[in-house]
Design brief:
The complex is a heterodimer of chains A (318) and B (515). Helix content of chain A is 75%, strand content 0%. Chain A is mostly helical. Chain B has 15 helices and 21 strands. In chain B, 28% of the residues lie in helices and 23% in strands. In chain B, the strands form five sheets. In chain B, strands 1, 8, 9, 10, 11, 12, 13, 16, 17, 18 and 19 form an eleven-stranded mixed sheet that branches. In chain B, strands 4-5-7-6 form a four-stranded antiparallel sheet, with helices on one face. The chains are: A mainly alpha (318), B alpha+beta (515). At the A-B interface, α2, α3, α5 and α7 of A face α1, α6, β18 and α13 of B.
């Protein structure tokens, strides 16, 4: 790594500090000023009644009776000491809770991204190479349908066919394996439909470049040109897309996680927001903000490695 | 990664995924072992009942529901008090209750249940729990052999009922630290003993030394499944033996009695409306009567709830025979409105007075699927008698309540969680009630409540509760739309698993799973 790349990385990482302060302050404000706090919602949702003294005591215990900036300042101070606080709902420390959800999310992200690459790269290339032929139309039509299917619908459809009717795969994970397949396929369906079209467009663009015509005219094999030059040139687009998707997947996919009982960070986030569980929501926001910054940084560095013409931190970078 | 490595890596991934998906998964089950797999929407941190520690929030519900903990008193099918860990009880005086405990009961830790164990448990409960100290109002507890004597700070006739609340599950306080070990487990006296406790599941083994006889099921797996469709399909696929909390629309999928059994019970959760007495039009009882008569409860429960609810009369599902309430009668409703000066003077279909239409701001919240449906049903039927309804179904209902921008507030409430009638009235209908947000007042009800506070005989309390229900119904102080019917759906191999109106008892020693 040269000096300019090093300073670029440091600069990007330093940008994280105001970003994190901004998003956490905004999140804190939204939670605070939204109607109902964790204590109120908890008791009201249960349909039982407790005295005001009980509510006040609980609020005091959780520090919810303090002014806004005092609460935020305390949270920030604890964060600087490596303490993400305790969940208002479960009373369990937030950091171990969040970390316990990460492996499941990582596994689902890895599997669905792997499947996406496996499906979309060959289909995108085939579609571009056979541009305007029936196979191109077929792939585009299928990807159009795949892209249009909402995740929850695809999930239920897959469950109905493969779990309820055929009984090849489990609806819920009872420990016998196979539970990764349907959630991964559900996520990969929409992503690969989108990617197939984008890879097709990137490859088509490269195929129309002069260097391709020149190479073919010089007698270089079509396959060699395709795999050695075109695909490498189109890789920048794919890497950027993958980085964005990885960020979104690692941030959790609440609907798919809920349907498949996948114990990941997405479900944790949605449940926490519903219960106004500020410490957990803030930890989740930190996690996603850091993830996005790091993944974008990694994508930039990878693009630079794939195509040395790319200048980091300058205009025209991917 | 080099291009040459990309394809084998991708193939490896595909093979791994295929291998993972080769067989539908099941938790290991040894030969001859009977396992009951149960999916429920009612367990988890969002319900404040994750874990089994009865002294923490609502986790006692999980301890009792899943057969780990037992309380001193039990509620019958008709919500009457029965002895459970207690053998008998008597009031020594207005503030002192003497309880004799059942002999031969042991905790799963091996310790025998005696007065000292109960004292330790209840002492800790009132020291740390949020609701119990206020409910129980205990001044002192004394133990002597199998006898426990509880003295209250003031007469508390509902004390035995409160002790049947799941927070009153008796656990061995010597177990772990303050009764809970590092795996969140507790030692109760119930037919099952947990071996794994998490936020999304509880796994249990049968208690071989259970005082009520050895349970018939070897192992129970309780899973929190909050998505209704997943719950439905897991039961259809045979991965679960029973489920609780299916969406109403899914119930018809299990109508085939040769394959499935549905056990239903009306719970004490009631969907009801309170009036805002600051609204001038609602101060007229004839307008309130007209509203009550314009709500078609039968259609609501039969059509919109697919028959999964019972039209309500008063606040209590177990006390519908002794009370009467206005029934659906649009004609009389129109007459009452006319009598009160509300007529359709301009022929626009809405009644009006002094040029102002009668418009009801109907406040409710979407947290319970039945409430927005009820709002829409009422909007349609009230329209028929000329009353306009503006629905505000919002998660911010508490904020709107505080602002006063509402006329009718419709909510769901567990009216008699421990079978005693006092709870609903003291929380909602009296001048001192925290939830009397509309400002209802009745001199008669205040007097009856004072009388109830000094009545110890359960039959007399029940009778007084009926009279109090009738008082608020005669006033049209509130309207009661329906009672929540809870359903357990199970495959036909399951027996001994029945829905209970209290919503407390689910897994018992009678549970059995056939081959």
């Amino acid at each position: 790594m040269n000096r300019s790349a090093g300073s670029y990385i440091v600069r990007r990482l330093l940008q994280l500090i105001p970003l994190l302060l901004g998003v956490t302050l905004l999140t804190f404000a939204m939670l605070r000023f939204a109607a109902g706090d964790a204590v109120e919602l908890l008791y009201e949702n249960l349909g039982t009644s407790v005295s005001q003294a009980v509510l006040d005591a609980k609020r005091a215990e959780l520090g919810l009776d303090q002014p806004f900036f005092v609460q935020y300042g305390r949270w920030l101070w604890d964060l600087l000491h490596g303490d993400l606080g305790t969940s208002c709902v479960s009373g369990v420390p937030v950091l171990p809770t969040l970390l316990s959800k990460v492996p499941a999310t990582l596994l689902l992200t890895g599997a669905s991204l792997g499947l996406t690459i496996l499906i979309s790269v060959p289909l995108g290339i085939v579609s571009a190479v056979f541009h305007g032929r029936w196979i191109d139309y077929l792939i585009r039509a299928v990807s159009f349908v795949g892209n249009s299917l909402p995740n929850f619908f695809a999930a239920l459809l897959l469950l109905l066919i493969f779990a309820v009717k055929l009984r090849w795969l489990p609806v819920i994970d009872l420990g016998g394996g196979g539970s990764l397949v349907l959630p991964s396929v559900t996520l990969a369906l929409a992503m690969s439909s989108r990617y197939t079209r984008q890879i097709r467009a990137a490859v088509l663009e490269e195929l129309e470049q002069d260097y391709v015509t020149g190479a073919l005219a010089r007698g270089v094999g079509r396959k060699t040109v395709l795999f050695s030059n075109v695909l490498r040139a189109a890789m920048g687009t794919i890497v950027t897309l993958l980085a964005m998707s990885a960020g979104s997947l690692l941030g959790g996919t609440a609907i798919v996680e809920s349907i498949f009982l996948w114990d990941g960070v997405g479900k944790l986030a949605v449940d926490s927001i519903a219960m106004r569980d500020a410490p957990v929501v803030l930890a989740y926001v930190l996690w996603t903000a850091i993830l996005y910054v790091l993944l974008n940084l990694a994508a930039d560095l990878l693009c630079r490695r794939l195509d040395p013409r790319v200048r980091l931190g300058e205009e025209g970078q991917p | 990664m080099k291009r040459s490595n990309l394809i084998p890596a991708a193939l490896l991934l595909a093979l791994t995924l295929t291998a993972c998906g080769s067989t539908a998964g099941t938790t290991e089950q040894t030969a001859g072992e009977t396992v009951f797999r149960y999916g429920t929407v009612a367990y988890g941190p969002e319900m404040a009942n994750a874990g089994l520690n009865p002294h923490e929030a609502y986790s006692g519900w999980s301890a009792v529901r899943y057969g780990v903990g037992e309380t001193l008193f039990h509620l019958s099918e008709t919500m009457e008090l029965e002895p459970w860990l207690a053998e008998s009880w008597e009031w020594v005086d207005d503030t002192t209750l003497s309880i004799t405990l059942r002999d031969g009961v042991t905790f799963s830790s091996g310790r025998a249940l005696d007065g000292q164990a109960v004292k330790e448990c209840l002492d800790h409960l009132v020291a740390v729990h949020d609701r119990a100290p206020g409910d129980l109002n205990i001044a002192a507890i004394e133990a002597d052999g199998q006898t426990v004597t509880i003295t209250c700070n003031a007469p508390n006739p509902a004390l035995p009922n409160y002790l049947s609340d799941p927070y009153g599950a008796i656990i061995d306080m010597d177990y772990g630290t303050d009764g809970v070990d590092e795996t969140r487990n507790v030692a109760g006296t119930g037919p099952f003993v947990a071996y794994e406790v998490a936020d999304d599941h509880i796994y249990l083994n049968k208690n071989e030394t259970y005082w009520g006889g050895v349970p018939q099921v070897d192992r129970v797996e309780v899973r929190s499944i909050t998505d209704g469709d997943t719950l439905t399909m897991a039961l259809q696929a045979g991965q679960l033996d029973a489920v609780q909390g299916l969406p109403y629309a899914s119930l018809q999928l299990f109508a085939d009695e040769s394959q499935y059994i549905i056990s239903s019970a009306d719970t004490s959760r009631v969907f009801f409306g309170a009036y805002n007495y600051e609204t001038e039009a609602l101060q007229d009882i004839r307008v309130r009567q007209a509203i009550a008569m314009a709500i078609d409860k039968d259609s609501f429960t039969e059509v919109l709830l697919h028959g999964n609810g019972t039209p309500a009369v008063g606040p209590f599902s177990f006390d519908t025979d002794g009370v009467t309430a206005p029934t659906y009668d649009p004609e009389t409703a129109r007459s009452l409105l006319a009598e009160a000066g509300w007529t359709d003077s301009d022929g626009d279909g809405h009644v009006d007075q002094d040029g102002q239409p009668l418009t009801i701001r109907w406040l409710t919240y979407p947290g319970r699927q039945e409430l927005p449906l009820l709002a829409e049903a009422a909007q349609a039927t009230l329209q028929e008698v000329g009353i306009q309804v503006e629905i505000n179904s919002t998660a911010n209902h508490l904020g709107v309540l505080e602002s006063g921008d509402w006329d009718v507030y419709v909510s769901a409430f567990v009216a008699a969680p421990t079978g005693d009638p006092a709870y609903f009235f003291t929380t909602h209908c009296l001048d001192s009630s925290a939830k009397n947000r509309g400002g209802y007042h009745s001199d008669k009800l205040e007097a009856q409540a004072a009388q109830l506070a000094g009545t110890f005989d359960p039959a007399e309390r029940a009778d007084l509760g009926t009279q109090m229900s009738q008082t608020i119904l005669d006033d049209c102080g509130y309207f009661f739309a329906s009672y929540l019917r809870m359903n357990f759906v199970m495959n036909n191999r399951v027996t001994g698993f029945t829905a209970h109106p209290s919503d407390y008892y689910e897994i018992t020693a009678q549970l059995s799973v056939g081959q």
